[in-house]
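To assess whether ligand presence alters the predicted conformation, the chain was also submitted together with 5-amino-5-deoxy-1-O-phosphono-D-mannitol. Input:
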Amino acid sequence: MCGIVGYVGYKSVMDILVDGLEQLEYRGYDSSGVAVMCDEKINVYKAIGKLNNLREELQHHRGEFEKSTMGIGHIRWATHGAPTVINAHPHTCNCGNLVIVHNGIIENYKELREDLAKKGCVFRSQTDTEVVAHLVAQKYAQTKDLAKAVREATKEIDGAYALCVMHNDCKNTLVLTKRNAPLLVGIGDGEFFAASDVPAIIKHTKKAMYLSDNQVAVLTPEKMVLTDIDGHEIKPKIELLPWEPVALSKMGYKHYMLKEIHEQPDVIRNILVGKLHAPDEDIILNEVKLTKETLKKLNRIQIIACGTSLHAAMIGKYVIENYCGIAVDVEASSEYIYRRNVTDEHTLVIGVSQSGETADTLTAIKQAKAKGSHILIITNRPDSAMAREADSLVPVNAGIEVSVAATKSYTAQLMAFYLLALYMAEVKESTSKAELTTLKTELMFLPQKIEQILANTDSIQKCAKVYSSTKDFIFVARGINYPTALEGALKLKEISYINATGYPAGELKHGPIAMLDETMPVLSILMKGCVFEKLLSNSEEAKARNARMIALTNSKDEKLDDLFENIIRVPDVEEVFSPLVAIVPLQLLAYYIAEFLGKDVDQPRNLAKSVTVE
Ligand code: M6R
C-alpha cells in the first residue's frame, strides 16, 4: 500500500528519498511524489504511474534541489480519488508553507473538510489527506509550534494514519506521528530517516525506533524529541533492525517472485533449526506462552487471516483438528470483525499474517484480545503491529518477501502450523509417539523434495505455455489440499489476471460443472491419501464434459495417463505434508504464465503487499 520516506541531515536528500521509495515499490502504488526544503521554500514534485515518471520529472528541476538536505516522499495507492498528479502526495495547505505525506485513511475527512471549507480552505484534491494539511496549518497559525499543531490536529482526526510533516518556517525539522499505521525513525550520525517500512532505510542504518500510536517525534539533524499526544517527553526505545540489505536484491533472478519461490527449501530448514533436532525428540516451541496445563484443557481455537494467510490457516485447521482433536474455526478477518463474535479467555485466537500489518486482521486480533483470548500471532514480521499485540509470537523467519504474490511466507506459515500442531499433540498426548516420530522424520525431508521440484520445471513450463492463452482456469482438490486449490487459483489470478477459481472437487457437480467444456482447463491436485480415488472420480466427471484435464500428482497410477492431457509430477510425500509439496508447482505455473503474458509479476495491478486499510 502507500509508503513514506523522510530525511533530515547533511546529505543530498533527493537520492535518499527516491531510492527509499523504490525500496517500498513492492507494496503497490499508482503515483508518487516528494517535497524538499530548497533555499527559500519547500518545493513539491509529483507524477502518476511508476517511479520512473517521477525521476523524469525531477530531471527537469535538478538545479533546484541539489543542495537540499531535508525532505519527505510518498508512493500512493489510491483510496480517495483517482491516481492523478493532484491527488498524489505530498499535499500542502493553501499557502503552500506546510507539506504533508500520509498513509492510512482519515475516516471523518468529510466532516473535517466541510468545516475547513467554511473557514476558507480551498481544496484541490479529492483525498482524505488534504484535510490534514489544512487542519495542521490552521493549528500552526494559532500555536506557531509545528509539533503542537500536529498533536492538536490529530486529536480531531478519526482513522488510521502515519504522517510526516514539514513547514517552511522550520527549515531543519520533520514532525512525525502515527495511529494504527506503521512508522519508524532510522537513526544515523547527524541525520534521521523516517519510513513506513524497513526496506526504505535499511541501507543507511539498522538503528531505529518504532513510533507507538499517538506519539509525536520531532527530528532535526542533531536530535530526536519524542512526546506523547499531550506533549510529555518520552524516552525513545531504540532497537536494531533485523533485515540485511542483501535480502532486497533479486540475486540474479528475473523477478523477486521467482527468487522467493526458490528460497523455500532454505526457509523450511531455517524454521526447523532449534525447534526439531531429531524425529524422536520433542518439538521445542518456546514461543508458545500458554502453559502445558492450559494447552491440555484447550478445546477451541479460532484462526483469523486474509488472502494467502487465510489459506495457510485452513490447512492449519485440518492439521490441528487431526492431530490434537481441538475444534478449530477459520475465518477471513474482514468477516470476523463485523459480527458478534463468540470468543473468550478459554479460546486461543491465532492471527496469521505475512506483513503483520493487515488492517482487518489487526482489528480482529484487538477485538479478540479485548475479550480476554490468548493471542498467538504467526507472522513474518516480528517487528510489526500484530506482533506487538501477541501473547505468543511465532515468527516464521522467511526473510523479507518483496513480491506482492506471497510464496515463501505461505510455506513458512504452513511450517509454523505443522510445528504448532505436532507440539500441541505432544503436550496433549493426542497422537501416538510412533506416529509423531514418523511425521517428524518426514518433516525433515521436505526441503529436499521441494528442491527436486525446483530442479525440474519442464512439465510446469510446458503447461504454462499451453494454457497461457486461456481466459478461465479451475483448480480442484479435496481434503487437506482444498486450500491448495484456492491458493493455486489466487496466485494465478493475482499475477496473470486469468479468472481462476478453486473448488472442493465434490462441489463441482453442484453447479460449477455447468461451466465445463473443451475450452476450460481443470487442474486436479491429486495427492495420494484418503481422498485420492474420490478426486479421481470427480476428475472423470469433468473429463466427460470435455474439460482440458491437468493433474498435479505424486501418483504413478497409469490410469492418469488416459485421463489427463498434461501431468505435473511431484515427489512422494505423506498426505498431511502434501500441501507444501503441491503448492510449489502451482506457484511456478502462475509465475510462468504471467511471464509468458508479459505481466508485471512482482507488482500486479491494483494490489498492495501490505493492506493497511480495511
Ligand atoms: O500480510 P498478510 O499475510 O496479512 O496479507 C494478507 C493478504 O493481503 C495477502 O496474503 C495477499 O492475498 C497476497 N497478495 C497473496 O499473494
